[in-house]
Amino acid sequence: PVLVSSFQPGSKSDKACKAMSPTTAPSPSPTNGKLQCLSRFLVYAGTYYHVNNITSCISDLSPCKEPPKSPTVVEIPQTVKDYIQQSKTHMSQKCLDMEAGLQLTTHYVDVSVSQREIVRAGKNTNRCLDKELIITGDIDRQKSSVGQSQVRVFLYLNGKRYNLLFGNAGMGKTTLIKKLCLDWSKDLIPQFDFVFLLDGKQLNLTEPVHSLQTLLLNQSSFAPPCTDPEGVYAQILSAPKRVLVVFDGFDELRDYEMLLQTQEKELVAALQKDSKAQAFTVKQLFSGILQRVLLPGCTLLLATRPRGTANQLLRRADSFLEVCGFTPENVETYVSQYFSDTELRASALDLLKSCSYLKLLCWNPALCHLVCTVLEHGKGSEALPRTLTALCHEVLSLKLEKDTNSSQGGELLSQLSSLAWEGIKSNSTTVPRGRGVSHKVREFGLRTGLLLSQSLTTRTTFQTESVGGGGGGDNSGMEKVQDEESKSKEGKTFDVDEDSLLLWANPFLQRGKGRRKPQREELELTQRFAVGLLFHNRTELKRLHSCSDIIFRDMVPSKQALVMKHLEGLSFGDLSSAQILEVCNYVYEASFTHKDSGTDAGGKVLDHLAAHLPEFVTFRGVPLNPPDVFTVQSILSKAGAEGRGFRLDLEDSGIKICGLKSLVGLSNINTYRACIADVITLWEELETDAEEALLQGAVSKFKIHPLKATQVCHIEHLEKLVSIHTLSVLAEGVPAVKELYKLEFELGPENGPLALPKLWDLLPGLHNLQHLDLENSKIGDKGAEKLANALVSLHSLEILNLSENCIGDQGLKKLAVVLKDLPKLHCLSLYSNVISDEGAESLAAVLPHMASLTELDVKYNKMTDVGAQSLGASLKNCEKVKTLRMWNQCIPYGVFERLQQQDSRILWH
Ligand SMILES: Nc1ncnc2c1ncn2[C@@H]1O[C@H](COP(=O)(O)OP(=O)(O)OP(=O)(O)O)[C@@H](O)[C@H]1O
């Protein structure tokens, strides 16, 4: 395309997508504990939202350039080889289930996994060790994709010992792990002899009766009974590099961080001394593995949702992977695999096309499954749900309709809802064991898939040769049962065993006791459902018998009024970006769950938000997933219909290019910011599709001022944009570049030098730049020379910060020549460089020619009294200068004081 002829076009397809969770900022709570009845119901709907698989796994990827090198193969005894073979057979049978009726072998969709990066938070990289995950733009995310073959994920693990696998609830971490296990069982991943899956739920086993050996051989998911535990364990210890340990079932990074807290010395010593002693708690053993006290050479893969920062963990890990969820193509594959009947398949795909929001929800695999459940019932597009609430509600209704004993469904559902709401309030994914859940409720919950039951298995370890296949079962010769509630059943069970652990099949009910911020993903979701249901169609609600007539007559309108009052009480200008997004989502649920909204109470809520959303809407730093973009878009366009215009900031939101297109395409968006590389790709797409009006709008509304570059890619992107500006056929160039007045180069001394060559190339294109900040970028004399060449073109420059840059006399000499030709420069900082007398003199020589200079800082350099005196003398000819800071240790105190007495503009600080 002409517009972008100067550089490599990016990929045009949105093939990767982002799986980031919204942040946990405090948010308005329309429920405020007052909508309990309905919200309980909604919790229930939410509970159904995702039928979760509880297993454990780990993985890490990075692009694999070479075939993996297996560590030296140690001779493995035959009995151990047999065990490995048995493990593989066992795993290949046991890890196949994804959802009821869906299996990995027939329904799995190859998803992309991308690498994520972290940065040190804060400007001073030495002082601040905190690290954060970077939210990358769409194009960069696609570039960092490790591809779709799961085997590649494993190859990627090669040599990386500490791997984190991120993904929001339902995005497919557990499923990916199972697929990896399946691949391992098929000998596709030869670098590991052993793969063990550990599960966060096992932390419920609090008795100190475990050893590393029993943890791995008896407690890990999908492990078969072992005839020769001693031999196998010895083999594991002798070649830990050939062992992969996967942790899953921890809901947040923080849960892992808790396991990284320093252990007592005696405990560490005990773990190291005798890892076979059955004297440890599961928690101690998990800690031992995560802290590299136990099995130090093994590869770890930790699956987790990305919420919250867990600095210790981020600091330790070598690689960060993320499951990207489904692309539109993946959704099509999933739907095609889900519907084996060709006619049903075609109609499902057709229906999905007509329902944008549902289609976007399918980005999340767990929701994609729910969408298929609804599509399966073949209602026309008019009857399809349009919100998350309506989707979950519909699935729940279908589920209950199918339930044979549904006569009591309403009552049981209500009881289950109370339990779920308690769980949300107490931050627990499990139903407390002492809670005395009635048999009926338990059975109902398990039957409908709202509850899962998991026995915290202590697997049989055979002492004899009499191993029978992979089944756990009630075998004789069983080791001591280590938890009174543990059963000798295999892994996860779904029976009505009163003793096993009851879990909500809902990924949004998170664990942890009160130490978290109160506002969590699941609570946000509950509120979203609560609001949605409150404004739902009454006939629909009645289908589940969850509310009486009185509730409809009295409570619903009064709660609706409360929501409205709450909304009216919000001061939108004070809300954080995450809160704005939450409000948009609540309001979307309220306004669109009911089919005929627009004229009713839900419509009023929408009107209010549309009228009061601030004119500047920023989602900077808040992950915007595809359905979020849709809700924001509907609210913005509603406001547009009322004549309101907006400025949008979408930087660091991970928005996909198609989402960017839909928002930028709104006629009432006056200006926008977003990842430059993504914007350029959008322009390219618009140009290729000959969407001229949209292209023109997308170019003219784009803004980048002021720009703070904190990563190398920011400068790479800017370079592309500047080259479009200078080379493009657009007569007026790119307005965003022309209007860039301030550029802060904040990559720090480590990364700065990587991007400097590009910076020098692009700088001359920024004709209108007024403020350039290059502090602490290690530019040195060479860089100073390059900068001098670029400065010739920057006639508008007013402020130049070159503090802490290792610039010496040579560099300053080059700079001095051009500094005098910058007619508007009024502030120059050369603080903390290595300038000595020679440099000071060359600066002194040009000082009187710097027509606009008012502030000069050369403090903490290397000049002595000689240099100081020449600067002092030169100052006499510079009327405009207001301050000259130049103290350093090489200038004798007396000299400095005298200079100061002569000219009060000379300052210490
Ligand atoms: N690649 C895939 N192909 C087909 N279905 C998938 C895929 N990934 C996920 N799913 C579906 O989505 C559901 C949720 O996935 P999964 O349990 O793996 O999510 P998760 O990221 O582990 O969530 P949580 O954080 O709640 O544990 C699965 O049960 C499965 O039905």
From TrEMBL:
Biased amino acid composition, Polar residues = 1-11
| UniProt keyword annotations, A-Z | ATP-binding, Leucine-rich repeat, Nucleotide-binding, Repeat
Protein's UniProt keywords contain ATP-binding: yes
Q: Which GO MF term does the entry hold, naming one?
A: ATP binding
InterPro entries noted in UniProt: Leu-rich_rpt, LRR_dom_sf, NACHT_NTPase, P-loop_NTPase
Q: A single Pfam family, by name? A: NACHT
Which SMART domains does the record associate with it?
A: LRR_RI
Against PANTHER family, the record matches this protein to: MHC CLASS II TRANSACTIVATOR
Name it: Class II, major histocompatibility complex, transactivator
